[in-house]
Design a protein that fits this description.
Oligomer: single chain
Distance between the termini: 28 Å
Low-confidence stretches: none
Mean pLDDT: 92
Bound molecules: dihydroflavine-adenine dinucleotide
Radius of gyration: 18 Å
Strand order of the largest sheet: 1-2-3-4-5-6-7-8
Strand content: 5-15%
Largest sheet: 8 strands, parallel, barrel
Helix content: 40-55%
Length: about 300
């Protein structure tokens, strides 16, 4: 049953018509459970509080499947606006973004120019911009873009997904770029041709790549809510004497706040991924797919409308 629901929510997350409808319909159906507001000003009140509680933050202006230049340009302007708000308000916040929100599906030239605009603005304030990893069909192009940008900018990072068979080879390959990497399990519906279908195999591969990247000496953001994985990282820290300056834990806004607090109390660096904006549909459907029990929050949200 869980698998069926998972596939159903992942199917919805890819639906462009529903994505557009939700955007024009507004911030509804329990969207606030996982999204910090419609505007950066709304989100920044929450970020300020998180910073005061000891958390660093990476902020994502929600957006995906953009298919025209005007919308891509608006997304770039919003990212730059967010960077300026972080600076003005003195927030401990970085930026995360999806390349499809700034033109990946339109042209390589557009997405590269847009990334350079954003990276230049972020560089002025010493901020890192992390490129989220989308579905497998865009993985190779995303990594090529990351590599090209990484040779020009120190403040760019990206994400690797443990469910992909290719991930170990990618970690090896990226080692030459002194990469800033966020390691995740992977959130999209992929075929058995390219990704492990079983959770156990994904978890095992996740442990393998965390150890691999830490031992390669690269900064590693371990982005998970899985306590067994977090315990594994703590074990690596002890066994291989990994300094705490070399890694951080990351979790999504609104998920496992108890665990986030526990890690802060134990003096680990924790960064919360804070999404905001009107394009909440695909993001929220992926959160439902990860834990179909979350659907209760959505139903409560609908009843409250
Ligand atoms: P797992 O799914 O095994 O969950 C472990 C436990 O965490 C669950 O038992 C539950 O308690 C809790 N949990 C997990 N998800 C939950 C949810 N939605 N609601 C409530 N509880 C939940 N993916 C991707 O493909 N590309 C990307 O760029 C990113 N970026 C990214 C950034 C950050 C900071 C994070 C934390 C995650 C991502 N992801 C991602 C998502 C990632 O791939 C993965 O889908 C989720 O993190 C869920 O997997 P876990 O590692 O938490 O483990």
């Amino acid at each position: 049953m869980d698998q069926l629901l998972r596939n159903f929510f992942l199917f919805l997350s890819n639906n462009r018509t529903l994505t557009k409808l939700a955007k024009s319909y507004g911030f509804k159906f329990g969207a606030g459970r996982f999204v910090a507001g419609e505007t950066i000003e709304q989100a920044s009140t929450k970020i300020k509080q998180m910073n005061e509680d000891g958390f660093a933050v990476t902020v994502d202006h929600l957006g995906e499947f953009i298919d025209n230049e005007a919308e891509a340009k608006a997304a770039v302007e919003e990212c730059i606006h967010a960077i300026n708000v972080f600076a003005e308000e003195g927030l401990d916040a970085e930026l995360s973004l999806k390349l499809t929100s700034i033109g990946l599906d339109i042209s390589q030239e557009l997405v590269m120019n847009n990334m350079r605009f954003i990276l230049n603005a972020a560089k002025k304030h010493g901020l890192i911009v992390t490129i989220d990893m989308e579905d497998f069909s865009r993985a190779e192009q995303t990594l090529q873009i990351f590599k090209e940008l990484r040779s020009e900018y120190k403040n760019v990072g990206t994400v690797l997904q443990a469910y992909l068979y290719r991930v170990e080879a990618d970690i090896e390959d990226l080692n030459a770029y002194d990469p800033y990497l966020r390691l995740v399990k992977g959130a999209y519906k992929e075929s058995e041709q390219v990704a492990f279908p079983n959770k156990q195999d994904v978890d095992e591969n996740y442990r393998r790549i965390i150890k691999q990247n830490l031992l390669q000496g690269n900064y590693t953001a371990i982005a998970t809510h899985d306590e067994a994985i977090i315990d594994f990282v703590k074990k690596c820290e002890k066994e291989f004497r990994i300094p705490r300056e070399q890694f951080e834990f990351q979790m999504l806004y609104g998920i496992r706040i108890d665990l986030q607090n526990e890690l802060i109390a134990a003096d680990y660096k924790v960064r919360v991924y804070v999404p905001y904006g009107k394009d909440w549909f695909g993001y929220n459907m992926r959160r439902l797919a990860e834990r179909p029990a979350n659907v209760m929050f959505v139903l409560r949200g609908i009843i409250k409308q």
